[in-house]
Amino acid sequence: MSIGRVLNALREEFPEVTISKIRFLEAEGLVEPKRTPSGYRKFTAADVERLASVLRMQRDHYLPLKVIREHLDALERGEQVSLPAPAPSRDLVEGVSDPDDEGPTAARIGRAELLTAADVDEAALADWESYGLIVAHEDGGYDIETVSVAKLVAELGRFGLEPRHLRAVKAAAEREAGLVEQVVAPLRRHRNPQTRAHAEATARELATLSVRLHAALVQSALRVRLP
Question: Whole-model pTM?
């Protein structure tokens, strides 16, 4: 299969995967497609399944690529592999969570676990924190949304985007969150529990629409600038 067909095969389960991501995983040695005499990649069904396994381990277990490679090598040797428990499922719109999910049962990880999940070092994480891209809770822990942010910041960094470049993205996200809060704040203060529950459902729906609008506007702007 060509890399385009591989992308289409993976997108059913992983809608956010890109050709750049597949090439990156190849560069990291997670998959080794054959090459035609003219240099084009040719993936087998086994290559596609291996890529799917890598993406599942990243998505469900937040494993760094080094650990994923070790697991895959062990499986190829016929060894049994024990994976950590899957992370709790979250809304498709990351960053929108249950407001009641702040107690002892809330999913939190420590600093060392965040470093492992994002596959970065302490210096990089400290840099992200200095620009407000990553913020720890008062207890020093990080939630699942923070893990997603860290992984995305790391991915963008591989394209040369530094934390200072992402301050505008952070500011835009905070403004969008502020708009959602303005709409649902009166509902959240209501005495009726059903009304308060409706506020949370409304917040999720507004967040979903906001993210979709943001993505559409970015795509539209790129079409104008890169016709």
Answer: 0.53
